[in-house]
Write a structure and sequence with these properties.
- The chain is an alpha/beta fold and 351 residues long.
- The chain folds into 3 domains: 182 residues, 3-Layer(aba) Sandwich (Rossmann fold); 41 residues; 123 residues, Zinc Finger, Delta Prime, domain 3.
- 51% of the residues lie in helices and 8% in strands.
- It is built from 14 helices and 7 strands.
- The strands form 2 sheets. The chain has a 5-stranded parallel β-sheet with strand order 4-5-6-2-7, sandwiched between helices.
- The chain starts with 6 loop residues before the first strand and ends with a helix.
- 39% of the residues are buried.
């Protein structure tokens, strides 16, 4: 069966170079023992990892023109997801597929989790096929966990595949990266996401345009904005908070931060929320620069375009640049385990 004859039954939007590479691997049987899927969140890295795994586990691989076939006993153990169901595509447990991800209130993928994975991968396959491990948040592995995994990668076993999912290649040990095939996921064009939302969800063109821009090239995020109103409203409140910051005194800014964080004032969950807040603010600051330079048609937050234009006229460019600098510094503080509330208050005091 030649490479072009295989159809990958995978719900990936954009990043066709990834599909082409993995299609060739499945066709030739030249499968690496370790892969690193790297790129921003919400691009489909986990979705591709799960479907690549299920294609390797498919009992009709080499016979079927579609992978996974969806018909064999192995395929029937799982449910194939859409592009917006990255986590759900691993919802059903397969005996030869193991998922590791960082606990919500933990900073790292732990040594215990990694040892459990290594032990599971060392056992014989239940279906005389591959044994596959997927590690989400791989760039958060503790040094002990990374060293334990490295020993496994240094002595690869036949038909054992490890897929590391990361947002930042530089945070992974070079010794692990050098032993892996690195596949880079890129942001998807706004037009591709727009067309997908209109075709697959039947929404209006104005709404599709707004969500496609707001997602900043991340299809799964666009769908989440569409389907999760609580998530969308939370995001919208963050945009309003920054646009109103320049009108508030310091006490008002601190009160807005308290409201956004809610009871999650500390811990890893609060740190994750603070990172999302900073990401929103960073996007808005860039939009303010575009408005300041008269390029309003390029803004990410089209949905609050009038407010952006008003703020862009009122805020001098040096102040906006200082805001971006303080956001970057706050991100560094979070990585250094500074209290999330304190990191956000640093931004509040900088503008």
């Amino acid at each position: 069966m030649n490479n072009s004859a295989i159809q990958l039954n995978w719900p990936l939007l954009g990043n066709e170079h990834i599909l082409n590479y993995l299609r060739k691997s499945l066709t030739t049987g030249e499968v690496s023992g370790s892969y690193v899927f790297v790129g921003p969140d919400d691009l489909g890295k986990t979705t591709v990892a799960s479907h690549f795994a299920y294609s390797l586990l498919c009992q009709n691989r080499g016979k079927s023109s579609v992978l996974p076939c969806g018909q064999c006993p192995s395929c029937r153990q799982h449910r194939l997801g859409r592009v917006d169901e990255a986590e759900d595509s691993l919802a059903s447990v397969h005996a030869d597929l193991h998922l590791v991800k960082k606990d919500k209130e933990k900073k790292n993928v732990s040594i215990e989790q990694t040892r459990d994975l290594i032990k599971a991968l060392s056992m014989s396959s239940f279906m005389n096929s591959y044994k596959i491990g997927i590690i989400k948040h791989a760039d958060t592995m503790s040094s002990e966990a990374a060293n334990a995994l490295l020993k496994t990668l240094e002595e690869p076993r036949n038909k054992v595949v490890v897929i590391l999912i990361s947002t930042d290649l530089a945070k992974l040990p070079e010794t692990i990266v050098s032993r892996s095939q690195v596949l880079r996921f890129h942001q998807v064009s706004t037009d591709v996401i727009y067309q997908y939302l209109v075709k697959e969800f039947g929404i209006g063109r104005v709404q599709a345009k707004n969500l496609a821009r707001l997602s900043l090239g991340r299809p799964a995020l666009a769908v989440k904005f569409l389907q999760d109103q609580e998530f969308y409203q939370s995001y919208f409140k963050r945009t309003e908070s920054l646009l109103n910051f320049w009108r508030m005194d310091l006490n008002g800014r601190f009160a807005a931060i308290n409201e956004m964080l809610g009871p999650k004032a500390s811990g890893q969950e609060a740190a994750g929320l603070a990172r999302r807040i900073l990401e929103t603010w960073q996007g808005l600051a860039r939009d303010l620069i575009l408005c300041n330079s008269g390029q309003v048609d390029l803004v990410q937050h089209e949905i609050v375009r009038e407010d952006l234009e008003l703020a862009g006229k009122s805020l001098p460019l040096p102040l906006i640049m200082e805001l971006l600098r303080s956001i970057k510094q706050a991100e560094d503080y979070l990585r250094a385990n500074v209290n999330p509330k304190s990191a956000l208050e640093y931004v509040a005091m900088s503008v």
